[in-house]
Amino acid sequence: MNRFFIGMDIGGTNLRCGLVDEGGVIVERRRCASRIEEGRDSFCERLFSEIVSLRAEAAARGGKVCAVGIGIPGLIGRGGLIHSSVNMRPLDGFNLAAHVEALSGLPVVSANDANVVALGEQRFGAGRGYASCMVITIGTGLGSGLILENTLWTGTGGFAAEFGHVTVDPDGRLCPCGNRGCLEQYVSAGALVRWACEGLPGTTADSLSAEKLAESARQGDPAALSAFGRIGYWLGVALASLANTLNLQAVIIGGGVGASFDLLLPSLHSTIKQRCFPQIGAGLVIARAALGDDAGLLGGAALAENGFLESLKK
């Protein structure tokens, strides 16, 4: 009988699910509105309904679902407790994985969504072949996940790899987390627009976007090119410290701003070269993410497979 795994990518707007075979092929997809504002119970009913549907699809394909892996935005403890999720507040203090496991009878594992994306890219995407790498998504914020020796590194409590909240400027911009000078305040879609506005007097942030700036930069606009250069610089400052600490093989960059990878790469490379030990910087691969929106689904499936294999040992 064929084995399948369900990967689930939860967001404040959409709930995306995929039925994935053992080879990492998404054979069926589901997508529905999260509608988390309707409350936790209603959300859990929709999520469970998707699992039931995908189990039926697996059976129709002559197989069975062995486990479920869920990516959730926020601080997710090692045991699955959702300590805080800014976009999914009704789930705060709730163990969604344990709840779904009790309802479905399947092994269910959850993790921070950026960690799940990292697992997907390392297992099936641009990170294949790299046993130790960092995967970064640059969009509204900066998400990240760390793979060390082919293992998703989540730390003692499950909260590791919050790279967006590494301090790069101790007296810098105030971050919503309460700290000052977090990397996310210097490397994100909002930061890109802010840098561009500084070079375009009279321009408002409302009139710009990362996509528009990428288009302008490719047409040679100096302010847009400078904005991407500053993003690359600050990311390079943080990555040089990370590389010197962990001697990683690769850094994989994705997300909305990451789609303009080529525009920030020159300043990123030059900053890493300047700040890394030569023996470390020379061996560090910087690559563009390959899976796009599928990274969360495939990462969830990989997380599920890991959980399933662990359950067989018990």
Tell me what you see in this structure.
- The chain is built from nine helices and twelve strands.
- By secondary structure, the protein is of the alpha/beta class.
- The chain has two domains: 2-118 and 293-313, ATPase, nucleotide binding domain (Nucleotidyltransferase, domain 5, 2-Layer Sandwich); 129-288, ATPase, nucleotide binding domain (Nucleotidyltransferase, domain 5, 2-Layer Sandwich).
- The strands form three sheets. A five-stranded mixed sheet has the order 3-2-1-4-7. Strands 10-9-8-11-12 form a five-stranded mixed sheet, with helices on both faces.
- The protein is globular.
- The mean pLDDT is 93.
Q: Main attributes?
A:
12 strands; Nucleotidyltransferase, domain 5; 314 residues; 5-stranded mixed beta sheet; 40% helix; alpha/beta; globular
Write the layout of secondary structure elements.
Blueprint: E1 2-10, E2 14-21, E3 26-33, H1 40-60, E4 63-72, E5 75-76, E6 82-84, H2 96-104, E7 108-112, H3 113-124, E8 133-138, E9 142-148, E10 151-152, H4 189-198, H5 210-218, H6 222-246, E11 250-254, H7 261-275, H8 278-281, E12 285-288, H9 294-313
Parallel strand pairs: 1-4, 4-7, 8-11, 11-12
Antiparallel strand pairs: 1-2, 2-3, 5-6, 8-9, 9-10
